[in-house]
Amino acid sequence: MSDIGRSILPGADYTDPAVFAAEQSAIFERRWVWAGYTHWIAEPGSSRPVTVAGRPLLLTRDLDGRVHVFHNICRHRGMVLSEEPSTRKRLRCPYHFWTYDVDGGLCGAPYWNRTKGSAPDDVTRDALALLPVTHAEWAGMVLICLGEPERTIDEVLAPLRERWAPTDLDRLHLAAEDTYEIAANWKLVAENFLDFYHLPFVHPQVGPAAAALDIEDVVLADDILGGCYPRGAAGKAAKTDTPLPVFGEALRDRQDIFCLFPNTLLFLEADWFQVIAFDPVSVDRTVEHMAIFVDRSAAAPEFEGARKALSTVLFEVNDQDVPVLERMQRGRRSPAADRNHLLPQWDQITVRFQTLVAASLEGRRV
């Protein structure tokens, strides 16, 4: 037993609502986290409501094409402003009809001083604009920080940008996307992504045990951890009959698999980029938003079949993980889950992930 280590997190950390609330405060309100995809608001004048750490937020793209993130709250009485994606260019609160532009400005408040046609002055309009949220765009994603960032987004992303410097992630073209509602804690979603041991058993179609044995653990930073398959696509069955254009020659012999802590899971191979980002909705419910991207040149009609074939393969892998995650969640309700053991030969990255969660919660547990 000397070569086996006890799980860092007890079973209750996956089932206790109080722990979930502490995680929302200590992790999701304090760190840079995924909030959505830029293609969700591709058109100028569009908007989409999202939720992060239980906070209603609003992604918008103004008429000049700039992305904004606001608290999705009317400044009058605090009503949630928008509940559906929109391309209407203006957003009207259904309570008293206060209206906002997609750049957050207050543009209408009827009967402001109890007379028809009255309106707030410019200073008041500016003061009552939607409240902004710190955000950034990267690799087709919108990342946000609800609190005061301890590091800039450039500092957070620097290790990934350096590793992927030969890859132009501004050339991403969306091939497919899907949403999964999973009856499991968010940590299990991330841990499963970082678990390379299960690949030949749950996903035999992606490669034999030898492929999983080839994966090397990689830690780019405390909050960027995962693995690298050094032979890339060469060591596994082809996902498409027609080769797709590649992002760069440097990636032909490598597949990178990283978790950008806490809720962004990234795959990068020579000809595709996949994001599995997730919203922790409750202690035992997580919503995944999976998007598959290819190089812009692969958007051509002659690659339609290859794009569909790639998407089918990748969605199948995720489909296979869902029942595993849900059974793992049910298992966490047993006191026996406190006696789980992690193998140093396979679970070093999981240990790092759990340690990061535990450190974030230090002093915050109820």
From TrEMBL:
Gene3D superfamilies: Naphthalene 1,2-dioxygenase Alpha Subunit, Chain A, domain 1, Rieske [2Fe-2S] iron-sulphur domain. It comes from the Bacteria. Keywords: 2Fe-2S, Dioxygenase, Iron, Iron-sulfur, Metal-binding, Oxidoreductase. GO terms for molecular function: 2 iron, 2 sulfur cluster binding; dioxygenase activity; iron ion binding; monooxygenase activity; oxidoreductase activity, acting on paired donors, with incorporation or reduction of molecular oxygen. Its cofactor is Fe cation. Residues 34-144 form the Rieske domain. This is Aromatic ring-hydroxylating dioxygenase subunit alpha.
